[in-house]
């Protein structure tokens, strides 16, 4: 079984997120999504609208997602890849190059980010109404 992993906050889930989850799943048979905890989001200077539990609930309902685990820090990726026997690490290309250190442990793929949508854009546009 070819296992894929990806990481993110996935707040206010939108079609850009779905696009990367679908393509990540297409790269294997089993997709693990590591969702940033609320504490880690604070480290990322991100304030998610939905808390971790609800973001996890939403992600677990997506057909492409097989397992959701917490992302607690920047340092856990090598351990996650080893512990879960991951074959492919996938991120949007806004992160291109940032995780190349994982190439010693698995395939690293940066997929094209979906243009025209983002959680901050949604927040800004709703906030201005
Ligand atoms: N994404 C995308 N297209 C968009 C928006 C997001 O492809 N229009 C992708 C991002 O590139 C990322 C994933 O969706 O791969 C999740 O995006 P975020 O929730 O914004 O995650 P981020 O804050 O980038 O956290 O350790 C890695 C971090 O946790 C990544």
From TrEMBL:
<dbReference type="InterPro" id="IPR050385">
    <property type="entry name" value="Archaeal_FAD_synthase"/>
</dbReference>
<protein>
    <recommendedName>
        <fullName>Glycerol-3-phosphate cytidylyltransferase</fullName>
        <ecNumber>2.7.7.39</ecNumber>
    </recommendedName>
</protein>
<dbReference type="GO" id="GO:0046872">
    <property type="term" value="F:metal ion binding"/>
</dbReference>
<dbReference type="Pfam" id="PF01467">
    <property type="entry name" value="CTP_transf_like"/>
</dbReference>
<dbReference type="InterPro" id="IPR006409">
    <property type="entry name" value="G3P_cytidylTrfase"/>
</dbReference>
<dbReference type="InterPro" id="IPR004821">
    <property type="entry name" value="Cyt_trans-like"/>
</dbReference>
<dbReference type="GO" id="GO:0019350">
    <property type="term" value="P:teichoic acid biosynthetic process"/>
</dbReference>
<feature type="domain" description="Cytidyltransferase-like">
    <location>
        <begin position="5"/>
        <end position="124"/>
    </location>
</feature>
<keyword id="KW-0548">Nucleotidyltransferase</keyword>
<dbReference type="InterPro" id="IPR014729">
    <property type="entry name" value="Rossmann-like_a/b/a_fold"/>
</dbReference>
<keyword id="KW-0808">Transferase</keyword>
<dbReference type="GO" id="GO:0005737">
    <property type="term" value="C:cytoplasm"/>
</dbReference>
<dbReference type="GO" id="GO:0047348">
    <property type="term" value="F:glycerol-3-phosphate cytidylyltransferase activity"/>
</dbReference>
């Amino acid at each position: 079984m070819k296992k894929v992993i990806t990481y993110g906050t996935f707040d206010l889930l939108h079609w850009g997120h779905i696009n990367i989850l679908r393509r990540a799943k297409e790269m294997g048979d089993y997709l693990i999504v590591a969702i940033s905890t609320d504490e880690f989001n604070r480290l990322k200077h991100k304030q998610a609208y939905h808390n971790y539990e609800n973001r996890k609930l939403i992600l677990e309902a997506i057909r492409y997602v097989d397992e959701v685990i917490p992302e607690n820090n920047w340092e856990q990726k090598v351990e996650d890849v080893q512990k879960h026997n991951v074959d492919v690490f996938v991120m949007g290309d806004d992160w291109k190059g940032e995780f190349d250190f994982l190439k010693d442990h698995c395939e690293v793929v940066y997929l094209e980010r979906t243009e025209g949508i983002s959680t901050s854009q949604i927040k800004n546009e709703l906030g201005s109404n």
